[in-house]
Amino acid sequence: MSNRNSMNQFFDRLSRKKGTGSFISSLVAIGIGLIIGLIILLISNPREAFAGFFTMLIGGFNDGTRSFGNVFYIATPIIMTGLAVGFAFKTGLFNIGASGQFIVGAYVAVLIGVKLPQLGGFQWVLGILAAMAIGTIWEAVPGLLKAYLNVHEVIASIMMNYIGMFMVNYLIKQTVLNVYTNRSLAVAPTANIPKMGLTAIFPGSSINGGFLIAILFVILMYIILEKTTFGYELKACGHNRFAAKYAGINENRSIILSMAISGMLAGVGGALHYLSGAGVYIEVVDVLAAQGFTGISVSLLGMSNPIGVFFAGIFIAWLQIGGFYMQRYSFVPEFIQIITAIIIYCSAASLLIRNYLELRQLKKDENLTADSDGDTADIVNVENQGGDK
Amino acid sequence: MDMLYLLLRQTMYFSIPLLIVALGGMFSERSGVTNIALEGIMVMGGFTGIYFINQMQSQMSGQWLLVLAIFIAMAGGLLLSLPHAYASVNLKADQVISGTALNMFAPAFVIYIARMIQPSGIANVSFKNTFFIHEVPVLCDIPVIGDILFKNTYITTFLGFFILIVSAIVLYKTRFGMRLRACGEHPHAADSVGINVYKMRYIGVMISGVLAGLGGLVLTVPISTEFKGAVNGYGFLALAVLIFGQWKPMRILWASLFFGFMQTISAAYSAIPFLLNLNIPSEFFKMTPYIATLIVLAFSSKSSKAPKAVGQPYDQGAR
Residue ranges of the domains in chain B? Predict the structure, then answer.
């Protein structure tokens, strides 16, 4: 067998793997999104379009280690909300309520951060644990409603978003309001997650140990989904709920647990963002937390896979930092959201791309079979591939 | 009594947009396409309509301007519904994801556009409200109904009821309506008797785009003097209305009146002495519509009669 042949075989096998197809279609979606974005820039301001576009693309490189570290700082909460949305997606559920879970988690973390400085170094740990608990409860409500009363989880989660937002606004006013800025009070220094040496690598940035905690959750979720029976049951429910039922999997239990864990992850996101020591405070405004919705993009772009979510989170954070520096030109940061939305739309349509890849593969196979004069290695090759399917 | 009329009139301001948007959603879902993008489409329609008023109000005013703005808002909504139809019908994409993408796109897009094209560079589009009808001659003298519907009102209220009647007739009494429903219940059976499922679904989504776009304008005009690039979850409330209304026009009317009333309480509680005296914090009043939605859905979803094929891409080759 010639060297070229084995190379071909390698690429054949690679393109046959489901993951590669998803990865390629994600890349194509990003490409299309960026091209349409450039067109929008060219239409709105042709003179500065390319400079602005370039600024966005180089994202974290705009301001040395400061902006580079900030990419990870921005990525931390949206990786968590992305994990949250992705985890529910694996069970076939759409947790559009990450925003609400994020903000209630943020509130309890800030509350503990302000009120319990006597805990010392344990304060931030307790803040995160409390955020986990409240996030779990917050999304378990739609989970229970879905499992036992057949309430559509999208509508229920959206309603929980608004209830959470108004509730947190009320509670902040009651407990931890800074009346001069209409925001939450600053947490005690011990409530901030330790830097864990990361600022030494990225001087000047707001990166902190929260990023490492997010990585920990990425690994944990990967293990749960891919290596445990529990994760397998959840995925089975998402794949075909009737088949899962016949296999003896308790569907209601899966729905509730999947939603609860999803809520927990988003709640942690809230704690990591507001205990970051970066000088962010919960604002008392009637606006839903953006990180919850960005989490949806992150999860879709990462194909709901924890590892994918991790990289998608960094990618979106990269764009957001780029969007921040784009304001040097006459562009507004909403542009990043437009591009993200287009990318998500394209990834929803990615079936088209995947179908195209499969079709091309099929044609290639046919060509190979037709080419019966070729050496025997090719024929063996084809037979092997037939067996792969 | 005056207080009650005030509340009921206020209820109309909130109920009519919910009614119109939910009816739009009904056409889409009855054809078999979940339209979670109603929120984004409302934003788009609201923006195009209000921006049109903003630009034209120096030359014209009153009902004709509103009528023109209505058509513009419908066109804006229609435009944004097309990508959803394309993704759901042609690309057989996940309809919830495509809808979410549009919900993300619309508010960002309108704020971007507003900040780019308005000389002031601000995101809000302001307008002068010259559309208020103090009372409709003759009809306002009808007892009770005259007080609720024909005083301090807008033509959009009547438009809402008109759309309701037309929708009910179209859905139940025309060939088109029956075909549309067939596509949402059993697309393969519909296809086997020669109905073009793809075409029907396109039309269903486009109708929802037109009505949701209109809904965005109808929501903004009576209660505000500027459009801020958001409709505060009304598109999702309309979806809840649709579910609570069991995908049936008349039930959707009652559901939207209920939700509109809840919204009225949350928005106007400070004008009602009884509620104000309860000393409940404003946040809890603002929560009422959303909590009410959860409770109502908890009781009404068990026996949900959603169209059977809703959300499933139609594939001619599938069995």
Answer: 2-232
